[in-house]
């Protein structure tokens, strides 16, 4: 008779198995079942599949690593296929005006202990900010009516904080759990952009004023740290880099080149020196984004020198520090002309380090940063209104009252995007289309504009089984 493998030898063999094979091995006998449930085996499988497990403090609750792996795999399967049995759809009404912006205020943690919750905040022309539980399909709280219509907000999920601004430039911070007002700051004119920055020294807020100043504020106190002049415009792009070292400020279609600030100099202003910044050698900038897979790779869409064609240019930024000063090194690493046959894109997003997604009318087009077209999707019947991109999927919203879900396949040299399914909104009789879309690890939410001038939220929360058997089969 062949010698039997002991638990230590089995554990070594099992460490080479894929999850499906490990589940099969658990069916052999009680010894194999016990070894196959070893914590380190499933922990390594989780770390290998989801890099976010390494970067964040996971909340397992009462779960084992095996249960976490099985639950998250099921959730991703359901979010990829989007069958009617995979999710619950809820419509949430409450605002008496249009919804102008929304943001998740719940952290994007994958937890499956029965306490998972997706919460978003919205601001509206009805002068209120409201919080919503997407799983329950209900309003959590609503602020008192404010002096003017609220037009923008940003969220700090780790702080459980939301910051809003109204059309007169009044900025307020609120506790996300109960809507308690914490602080306020009034800009001299209305705000053209807000950006939340989670800096290593602590989170702060950037606010571009239409009068032509960039304000840096602490959160949640909203104390002004610095104020620097920038281009005056009602349409400003304001973006922090993935490493939070840079703030990009650009006035749309301005003859002035966009400016990049070193955020450290905004947080620690000098009385006798202006903040460290540089102006990019381009003008008539229309759209921009950072490549999320790099620390400081900036993608800008602008007009060429003659002003006749659109160009997409990619830059790398680096700070060279000496004892007395910081020098900004800007290197152009790629540039290409958009095809003349393509309608001017109104949406630009990045994926990874080299892929650029453009929303052009009703079409979604993917390019590499060197101009190689990877794919084009014409799934919508009317213009795309918003574009959500994360490491797992892409979601588009449209005036055709649908959300289209795409999933990345990363096994090739360049990620391949696959069109998977669409999510429908309400009746065209009452609604004019989706205007916004966002997503977290277990839900998708869109803003549905109503023909009456109001707005509602429509959420799609994906189901997952919580009672995976982790014992002897």
UniProtKB/TrEMBL annotation:
It holds the Pfam family F-box-like. PROSITE patterns: FBOX (PS50181). The keyword Transcription regulation does not apply. SUPFAM superfamilies: F-box domain (SSF81383), WD40 repeat-like (SSF50978). InterPro entries: F-box-like_dom_sf, F-box_dom, F-box_SCF_Substrate_Recog, WD40/YVTN_repeat-like_dom_sf, WD40_repeat_dom_sf, WD40_rpt. Residues 1-45 form the F-box domain. One of its GO terms (cellular component) is cytoplasm. Keywords: Ubl conjugation pathway. Pathway: Protein modification; protein ubiquitination. This is F-box domain-containing protein.
């Amino acid at each position: 008779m062949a010698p039997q493998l002991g638990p230590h030898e089995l554990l070594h063999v099992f460490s080479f198995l894929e999850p499906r094979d490990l589940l099969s091995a658990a069916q052999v006998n009680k010894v194999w079942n016990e070894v196959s449930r070893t914590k380190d085996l499933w922990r390594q499988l989780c770390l290998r599949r989801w890099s976010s497990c390494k970067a964040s403090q996971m909340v397992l609750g009462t779960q084992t690593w095996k249960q976490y792996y099985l639950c998250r795999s099921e959730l991703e399967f359901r979010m990829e296929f989007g069958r009617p049995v995979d999710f619950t759809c809820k419509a949430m009404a409450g605002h008496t005006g249009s919804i102008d912006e929304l943001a998740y205020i719940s952290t994007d943690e994958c937890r499956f202990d029965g306490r998972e919750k997706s919460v978003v905040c919205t601001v509206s022309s009805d002068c209120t900010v409201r919080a919503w539980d997407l799983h329950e399909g209900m309003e959590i709280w609503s602020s008192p009516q404010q002096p003017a219509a609220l037009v923008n907000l940003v969220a700090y999920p780790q702080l459980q904080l939301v910051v809003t601004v109204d059309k007169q430039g009044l900025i307020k911070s609120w506790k996300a759990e109960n809507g308690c007002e914490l602080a306020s700051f009034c800009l001299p004119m209305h705000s053209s952009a807000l950006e939340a920055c989670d800096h290593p020294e602590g989170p702060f807020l950037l606010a571009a004023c239409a009068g032509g100043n960039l304000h840096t504020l602490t959160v949640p106190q909203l104390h002004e740290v610095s104020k620097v002049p920038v281009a005056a415009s009602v349409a400003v792009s304001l973006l922090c880099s993935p490493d939070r070292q840079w703030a990009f400020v650009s006035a749309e279609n301005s003859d002035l080149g966009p400016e990049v600030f070193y955020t450290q100099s905004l947080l620690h202003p000098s009385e006798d020196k202006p903040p460290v910044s540089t102006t990019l050698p381009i003008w008539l900038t229309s759209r921009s984004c950072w490549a999320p897979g790099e620390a400081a790779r900036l993608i800008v869409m602008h007009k060429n020198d003659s002003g006749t064609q659109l160009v997409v240019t990619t830059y790398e930024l680096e700070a060279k520090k000496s004892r007395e000063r910081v020098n900004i090194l800007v290197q152009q690493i790629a540039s290409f002309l958009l095809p003349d046959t393509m309608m001017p894109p109104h949406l630009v997003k990045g994926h990874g380090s080299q892929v650029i997604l453009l929303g052009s009318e009703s079409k979604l087009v993917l390019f590499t940063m060197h101009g190689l077209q990877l794919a084009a999707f014409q799934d919508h019947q009317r213009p795309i209104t918003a574009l959500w991109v994360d490491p797992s999927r892409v979601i588009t919203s449209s005036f055709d009252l649908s959300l289209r879900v795409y999933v990345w396949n990363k096994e090739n040299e360049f990620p391949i995007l696959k069109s998977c399914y669409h999510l429908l909104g309400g009746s065209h009789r009452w609604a004019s289309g989706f205007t916004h879309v966002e997503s977290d690890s277990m839900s998708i939410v869109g803003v549905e504009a109503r023909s009456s001038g109001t707005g509602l939220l429509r959420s799609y929360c994906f189901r997952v089984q919580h009672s995976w058997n982790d014992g002897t089969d």
